[in-house]
Amino acid sequence: MNKAKFITFEGVDGAGKSTHLAWFVEVLRKSGKKVLVTREPGGTPMGECLREILLNQSMHAEAEALLMFAARLEHIEQVIKPALQLGTWVVSDRFSDASFAYQGGGRGVKVAKLEQLECWVHENFQPDLTLLFDIPVEVARQRLSKNITLDRFEQEEGTFFEKVRQAYLERFKNHSDRFVLIDASQTPEKVKENLEKTVLCHPIFKER
Ligand code: TYD
User: Fold this and answer.
1) 153 CB under 6 A from ligand 1?
2) Total domain count for the chain?
3) 140 belongs to a structural domain
4) Do residues 77 and 46 touch, judged by C-beta distance below 8 A?
5) Does this model's pTM top 0.85?
6) Residue 103's domain is classified under what CATH number?
7) CA 20 to 30 Å from 160, out of 31, 38, 150, 205?
């Protein structure tokens, strides 16, 4: 049996990653894998309480970064690592790359500070694969405008999301070994086709 893997989905709000995540997990399960689906911020009782605060309560940008990583530590230790040890694949809707994109790019928290937190919380532990759903900000904003309620992040201006997108692309450039970039501006069918062609043929699905 393959060693269980940790896969993360990333992208600006409105890129459509959640829709594709559901389909992707279905494909993994049909191939006989046990899969745990989780999300950040959240994934544990403590993390879900912090999510409620983070998505609704305004705060200092660095406090926001610290809370994201506090929730992440709990998530890794209580959920992600135990599942992987039991041979269960873990698919997370966002992980640390989101902190570099949103708190780093969007809010301007220094990358060096985020790197310190990353090192503190999960030194030597990274996703085996990260799918980055990339989309021009105007297209993502149009998709989001159909939502009735928007959280604190989704209510930000286009310029905020432009910075988030650029920070994600920077992460992709610097960690290209574990990233796959997906053009999310295409129709959902085309994105799915692309996922089938590029992602499901990735070496991590063949490793023993
Ligand atoms: P999101 O995946 O967009 O949830 P939903 O699809 O239910 O709206 O995640 C919620 C928000 O949290 C999103 O706008 C990005 C933000 N976020 C950060 O700012 N930093 C982080 O480290 C993480 C994990 C999320």
Assistant:
1) yes
2) 1
3) yes
4) no
5) yes
6) 3.40.50.300
7) 38
